Fold:
Amino acid sequence: MAAQVKAKNIDLRGNKAGELFARLRREILSGTRKPGSALPTAEELSLQHRMAMTTASTALTRLMHEGLISRVRGRGSFVAQRLPNQPKGTRMIDFVRVRHASHQGDRASDLTLVEELSRLSHNYGWTARWHHLLPEEATDVEGLADLLSESRGVIVLKRVPTDLVRLLHHRGVPAVAVNPVSGERLLNPGPFPAVVFDRVESARRAVEHLASCGHRTIGFIGTAGTPFTGLRMIGFCRAIQDHGLSLTPEWIREWSGQPLDASRQALRQVLTASNRPSAWCCGVESLAMTVEMLALEAGLRVPQDVAVVACDTVDPVLAVREAPVPITAVGPSIEEMCQRALEIIEQTEPGFDPKDNAMIPPVIVPVHLIVRQSCGAKKESDRTFHANPEHPKGGDDAAGE
Structure:
């Protein structure tokens, strides 16, 4: 008990002793410094980090009070053989995700994602620790960074603000953004590691597949006001031109869903018009499912009267189990994206020194075409396409999710 009181009296916030303590603590808890291994002396640490020897000694004292090291007179400091509250051999990796604001709980696809990524982490020798945030909780970037500052590795999924990854990376915490909703990290180098896919290529492949199925009139629908619709529209328009098809402005639509009844009625009119396209390229599976439902309500058949393809596999459970007709989709494997993120973290030492203003190229994973019944193809398949380096790198004008 006395040791705990003494530890509280050592103020390490905002000074060099605190920074050294945090770095050594991360290295010990992550396993970089093995149990029983010797630590540098206070004198050696003061020379390495250009600080007073008393400052280094203060950091070592705090580590001792927390039970992370033992100090032996005449021999030095050693990592504790048994760390407090941490089973031997445990390597924790933190996943951060934001729940859907429109759902009371997690959807089936969200639970599947958690299960799959936890299994994948286990295969890599990690124990996954999940942080499921409400949208308003995700805005407290400083608080989240403080919570995760001792983590061996952090994987931040899609809707979490990329400022969290930027801040963790600046603090020397291995962190990777997977499929970030941020125009700055589409295919561009940036100030933190990211794993992404090419949405221009994804939309282009969706149109290419529909054209290969014989469709000559193809429409596009994307989500209004989200970061990726603009890129998908570029891929759509390029593919339409490449195949010599007609680019009809009335067949390019944005779905806002607000108000819902008016949005549904406007889309229903396009679907049932006499000059309607025979196929639709939709931004995500939820839009594709909306198109299917409205078409079926209007007495049309999917895919005989209208074919549907999604150019992002955001929600594979929705595409297969909940859609009226299983949806053909193009997109990345979230498991593959997280596998690449785990590899980045494996190769990054905790407490690394981030280079000021260094721009890190993202890891770009290939997209896959998964053929199901909604497109009218006779045979289901899984084809892989790699990013085209000639496609635009995105930027401030990118829109759509």
About this structure: Residues 1-14, 380-401 have pLDDT under 50 and may be disordered.
